[in-house]
Amino acid sequence: MTVLVLLEHDRGELAEAARQALNAARPLAEELGVPVHGVLVGEDAAPLAQTAADFGAEVVHVATHELLSDYGPDAWAETTRQLGDALDADVVLSVGSDRGNEVMAHLAARSGLPFVANCSRIAPNLGPWSITRIQWGGSLLEDVTLAAPRKIVTIAHHAAAATPVHPDCRAVDLRLERFEPELDESVAVTMIRGRDGQRRGSTLSTAPVVIGGGRGVGSADGFSVLEELAELLQGRVGCSRAATNNGWRPHSDQVGQTGTRISPDVYIAAGISGAIQHWVGAMAAKKIVAINTDPDANMVAKADYAVIADLHEVLPAISEEIRRRRDA
Amino acid sequence: MALRILCCVKRVPSPGSRINLTDDGTAVDATHLGFTTSPHEECAVEEAVVLAEHEGGTVTVLTLGPPESVEQLRYAASVGADELVLVATDGAPWDPQRTAAALAEAIKRLETDQETFDLILFGNESADSGGFQVGVRVANALQRPMVNGIKRIELNFDGDGPGSVSARRAVDDGFEVYELPLPAILGVKEGINLPRYPTMRGRLASKKLEISSWEGEAAPGGQALVRLRRPVEQTSTTTILGNSAAAAPAVVDLLEELGVFDR
Ligand SMILES: Cc1cc2nc3c(=O)[nH]c(=O)nc-3n(C[C@H](O)[C@H](O)[C@H](O)COP(=O)(O)OP(=O)(O)OC[C@H]3O[C@@H](n4cnc5c(N)ncnc54)[C@H](O)[C@@H]3O)c2cc1C
Ligand SMILES: Nc1ncnc2c1ncn2[C@@H]1O[C@H](COP(=O)(O)O)[C@@H](O)[C@H]1O
Fold it and tell me: Which of A112, A264, B31, B80 could connect to B49 by a Cys-Cys bridge, CB 3.0–4.6 Å?
């Protein structure tokens, strides 16, 4: 009886998601009165066991097999399935990252069990559990019941902050165990074959200043006034799906449910109406300034500050004012 | 040999600034809303149409949902899909296990009448429920390899035709490359392409296309909806800084105050 946590790593580097998963697992395990176990898939992840212990994993299983040379959804899921069986796990948990959701979906499919993705609250009961999960990329919550002998869940990304149990000391007794799953070649079919390309340094998600433009910008060329201001503030240009769909900006600039989630100190949203799918990508910004000709636009209502005017007049004026003050 | 590609798409409401719920809280109140196809799936259809145009082949689009879902099927046809299939429900939301079981059955049925689909495309996740699993479950039921989150697809040909597919998944520092033997299944993400808009001719042709349809049947799975809720909204008062370009100094004052001016 355990809460088994899939510890996400990439070629031996622990993902932030693994820490978040352990943080979400601890209170759940306490409530159930069972220990937290972690699984690291692949020999190259063995050195991460101590960190996992620091974050609350009482036992860390390192799964080793010659086929576990890199990430692959089937290999990871089958390994986790076998360990879950061996431990008779009550819960198998991970974070709702790309890999977390993918592996849990494969695990659930292989086990013939339900899988609840992106949970924000898990309440164990004697009967079916009560769970709240996010829908629409976070615009909506869904209360569900989950009836299954083993609960397979992911925690919504960033729902659990990553603080270690013992922030200052490394005094946790690490219990490390080897686990050798029985795998055949079929699980290797979906394994990573290689890596390439440099994604154009997409720092949109971490940029401290983002200047976003929407349909109101009017054209691809119209974005030059946003580029200018972004450069002055060492920020990045973002956009709405309307701008992407018109071919004005690449999809890598898109902010929102099916784009990037940003969390800048300041987000200046120009000519963007503030549809809910855009908003979920922008709402983590500390301060939002809307520039819109329509005082009733949702973005204006939700922003901290607004200028009700044509962005093509306001943005150049802001850039000009910045230059004037810097030259002074 | 002509390529056969299948895309699974879902009809979802198209909310604007706020998602309203029905009184009993079990569904999105769609009275004043239009409907659409999830963006990831729109890209899946575009990708399939481009591949079929290049290599010669057909694109089938399959949806499970209320009879009104024919609207999304027709849209897919208007941008190039050749065959449309509806697995009809009464409109109540189906859980992921149930949806996947019915879709897998539908695919088996389509493959007994005709040849196997070389490639089946899903969206990375559905726009409304976002369960991140229907495609994976279908792949498991059909015993085919599946990878999600794909931003680039290339078919590799051997002697007689397409033999495998290279698929790239975007990660922070580049792309992970996967290579799956066909028949295979991929979940794609928006950004893989820029979907075309329908032409007038496409729209007209799509109206004439026949739609195969039958009632969906599958047992519910272990996840059951209780109700939907809107998250608590942070209400903020908006400070209006001005109504013209004359607001610029006030904006720059603000930027200074927020500490992003001196960079
Ligand atoms: C499932 C799903 C997922 C989606 N995902 C995303 C996503 O990730 N990101 C996203 O952005 N959208 C997403 N959308 C689309 C979203 O619903 C909206 O359609 C889109 O965000 C609208 O973009 P917009 O605000 O630029 O355009 P509009 O809604 O057309 O708004 C344009 C705004 O510009 C203002 N304006 C016009 N001219 C000027 C001017 N000269 N100066 C100042 N203001 C001006 C107008 O008053 C208006 O408020 C998604 C939709 C669906 C259904
Ligand atoms: N009702 C449905 N009909 C057809 N395809 C669906 C349906 N529900 C989900 N899908 C497909 O499965 C993918 C993943 O869905 P989900 O597991 O709900 O996130 C979606 O992007 C669609 O391609």
Answer: B80
Q: What is the CATH number of the domain that holds A263?
A: 3.40.50.1220
The yes/no answer to whether this complex scores an ipTM above 0.90 is: yes
Residues of A in contact with B180 (CB under 8 A): 189-190
Residue of chain B whose alpha carbon sits nearest to that of A245: B194
Enumerate residues 56 to 115 of chain B having a beta carbon within 8 A of any beta carbon in chain A: 95-97, 100
Neighbours of B212 (CB within 10 A): 15
Domain boundary among A188, A221, A256: A188
Residue A139 placed within a domain: yes
Report the nearest atom of ligand 1 relative to the CA of A297: 49
Entry pTM: 0.96
pLDDT tens digits for range A25-58: 999 999 999 999 999 999 999 999 999 999 999 9
Whether A179 is in a domain gets the answer: yes
Query: Alpha helix (H) ranges present in A92-247?
Result: 98-111, 224-232, 241-245
Q: How far is CA B94 from CA A18, A78, A178, A210, in A?
A: 31, 27, 40, 39
Q: What is the pLDDT of residues B175-231, one digit of tens each?
A: 999 999 999 999 999 999 999 999 999 999 999 999 999 999 999 999 999 999 998
Contacts of residue A3, defined as CB under 8 A and 6 or more positions apart, other chains included, come to A25, A28, A29, A32, A34, A35, A36, A37, A89, A90, A91, A93
DSSP track, B92-109: SPPPHHHHHHHHHHHHHH
Contact A195 B174 (CB under 8 A): yes
Indicate which ligand has the atom closest to the C-alpha of A314. 1
